[in-house]
Amino acid sequence: MQHIGLIGSGWLAQGMARAWHNQYQITLTTRDPEKQQQLIAQGISCLIYNMGDEAPWLADIDCLIIATTSKSLTVHQQLLNQIQHHPDLPVLFTSSTSVYPNDGQRHTEDSPYLLKDHPLYLIEHCLQQHPKTTVIRCGGLIGPGRHPGRFFKNKSISAPQAPVNLLPLDDATGIFAHVMENHYIGTTINACHDQHPTKGHYYSTMAESLGLPTPDSRHDSTGQGKIVDTHHLIHKLNYQLQSNIWSIDQ
User: Fold this and answer.
1) pLDDT tens-digit profile of 105-125?
2) DSSP strand E in the chain: where?
3) Given this model, what pLDDT does residue 186 score?
4) Residue 80 burial by Cβ neighbours in a 10 Å radius (0-12, 13-18, 19+)
5) DSSP structure string for 73-87
6) For the whole model, what pTM was predicted?
7) 137-186 pLDDT per residue, tens
8) What interhelical angle do 169-181 and 11-19 show, nearest 10?
């Protein structure tokens, strides 16, 4: 059984640990001893680790996934120094589709309009110095505990005519597993659902599905949004989407 090391212990990292518990040996990391004990009590292996510190445990894993909210280039450079002691270690970096501008365009992985001063793009570029790094640019994460019907509770929907670019948890874990199982190494992948309704229609419908008031829309907003293109994921890497963005567990 492959041993997956996962830097992070948030919503996505815990979702991966639960989805893969029969498939891989999983070890998460946290900086918080109390959280470590809570996860261990749930049957999830977890180490105390502060990004940038020495990581001797990298020698014990078969693949590293970085799934934190940190946008610090410095700590990722320090982590890279640790990774480079393990030249054969596959690394999957959880990035975001926010590296593409809201310019009304459709963006593939090699879009000429990438925001090259975006903190996550700079981290991508840093980690790609390790040749076995794969960058996975995730859309907006949705799923149990992150129901989109609650995203705009007591708030107005900005840019209601802009399209959504979402990634349900089942597909987030599915895409990462697909990449590992098929050894898609050293590439960049857009990871989101291929349905892109407008924000106004989608979030209003999802709020109504929970019996919540329909959020107001800021009709003065002219944001164009963007569409994140998943042709590479679906047609080149042959990933089959598992989820329906209109049917999300609470």
Assistant:
1) 999 999 999 999 999 999 999
2) 3-7, 25-30, 45-48, 63-66, 91-96, 106-107, 133-138, 140-142, 166-168, 188-191, 227-228
3) 97
4) middle
5) HHHHHHHHHHHTT-T
6) 0.96
7) 999 999 999 999 999 998 899 899 999 999 999 999 999 999 999 999 99
8) 60
First to last CA, the chain: 32
Helix (H) / strand (E) element for 35: namely helix 33-41
Rounded Cα gap, residues 94 and 65, in angstroms: 7
Instruction: Name all domains of the chain by residue range, CATH numbers in brackets.
Output: 3-143+166-197+227-236 (3.40.50.720)
Residue 169, amino acid = L
Q: Find residue 95's DSSP bridge partners.
A: 137
pLDDT tens for 21-52 read 999 999 999 999 999 999 999 999 999 999 98
**H or E element at residue 205:** helix 199-209
Q: Is 96 exposed, middle or buried (0-12, 13-18, 19+ CB in 10 A)?
A: buried
Instruction: Supply the DSSP symbol for 70.
Output: -
Beta bridge partner(s), residue 142: 168
Q: How far apart are CA 93 and CA 187, in angstroms?
A: 11
Per DSSP, helices labelled H in 114-183 are: 119-127, 169-181
Q: DSSP character for 99?
A: G
Question: Given pLDDT bands bounded at 50, 70 and 90, which one contains residue 221?
Answer: low
How far apart, in whole angstroms, are the C-alpha atoms of residue 210 and residue 149? 7
